[in-house]
Amino acid sequence: MMGKNKKSIYILVFSNFLICLGIGLVIPVTPFIKNQYHFTTSQMGVMTSLFAFAQFIASPIVGKLSDKLGRKPVIVFGLFTYMISEFIFAVATTLPIFNISRIIGGLSAAMVIPTSMALGSDLTTLKDRAKVIGWLSAAFSGGLILGPGLGGILAGITYKTPFWVAGILSITSAIFTYIFLKEDKEVLEREELEAEKKAQEKGSIRAILTLPMVMLFGMILVSSFGLQGFESIYSIYVNQVFDFGLGTIALVLTLNGIISLILQVAAFNWIINKIGEMRLISIAFLLSAVCVFWITQAHTHIEVIVATLIIFSSFDLLRPAITTLLTKSSRSNQGLINGMNMSLTSVGNVIGPLMSGALMDWNTHYPYLVVTIILAASYLLTFIVRKHPIVPVE
User: pLDDT tens digits, the chain, 394 residues: what are they?
Assistant: First the structure.
């Protein structure tokens, strides 16, 4: 059943990758925007959070809209809107215009990412759905991983270049999507629709509010909060404290992208089979806490680079490990669980940059010291979950 829709699925994967690539492009150029326009770190944190906040607010509205209008028009309009946001960012010279660009970018992400997931489900049978959603998730992760490195390289030309390139790629993707993407709403057979309907009827918040599940949802919030709290000011921090130039930042983020892709594509399943999700989550929290603190005490560039690569690698294994563990918790509550996963991730993405930006204006090292404490506390929480293992809820 997936065969005749393979072209459409590939287009969806590319669109998802493109949007997430754009999310990461801004990260390596933030210190140079900050310095050129004399913004505070708090203002940069707000700029980063506005993207996630707009996405968080718009996602449920867009979901209902795509049910009425169809998935394809929403995705195409989202890609076109994304082009507008990137071009506005490229020509912006004042803080309000930069912020407007990020809000429009968040709205476009809300139109493309969840709608792509929904259409991916529409285009596949239950048998193939997990594989396709996995491809879309990999595109999401891959864009977030490679975005900062690519942004750093393109910014070597001029710090505006990444946004011009992203805008051009976006309009190209919108045209290809409009021409080649086909919606097939009849792809699911009647029995599968009935099975899904029954599963949805079983879904309830009470069924998943067990102690280990609550702890896992808390870890989702903490991991997204910690990653954004660390990543959103990383370029500013290393530029200000260790005098990292654009080339060094681009090198670090590119190395991280390569390592993370290897870990997620080639090593993740092997690690899970060897030690299990919960042990991996525990180790990832511990390593990230230790290395974030290490950066605040580091004296050499090599120390900072090594610690950075360990932190990003830990987070890149932590998030899929938590998600994988969640998918085992219930067969009948997947929609509810995935919805809560996305919502909590968005909340963390909003709060993290705001917290780090405000604290960094107060004291350079405070953001990472706070992130260290939160990650260390999360490591301790993993022992509670390990004593109360996840029991599948049918």
Answer: 455 677 778 888 887 787 778 777 766 777 788 888 888 888 888 887 888 888 878 877 887 787 778 888 989 999 999 999 999 999 999 999 999 999 999 899 888 877 887 777 677 765 666 567 667 766 776 777 777 778 878 888 887 888 898 888 889 888 888 888 776 554 444 444 445 545 544 445 555 566 666 777 777 787 788 888 888 788 889 988 999 887 788 788 778 878 877 887 778 778 888 888 889 999 999 999 999 999 999 989 999 999 999 998 898 888 778 777 766 665 555 445 655 666 677 777 788 888 888 898 888 899 999 999 989 988 988 887 777 655 544 4
Q: Which among 185, 167, 178 is positioned nearest to 77, based on CA atoms?
A: 178
Q: Can you list the alpha helix ranges (DSSP code H) found in the chain?
A: 6-25, 30-37, 41-69, 71-91, 95-122, 126-154, 161-180, 190-202, 205-208, 211-231, 234-241, 246-262, 268-275, 277-297, 301-327, 334-362, 366-387
| Global pTM value | 0.69
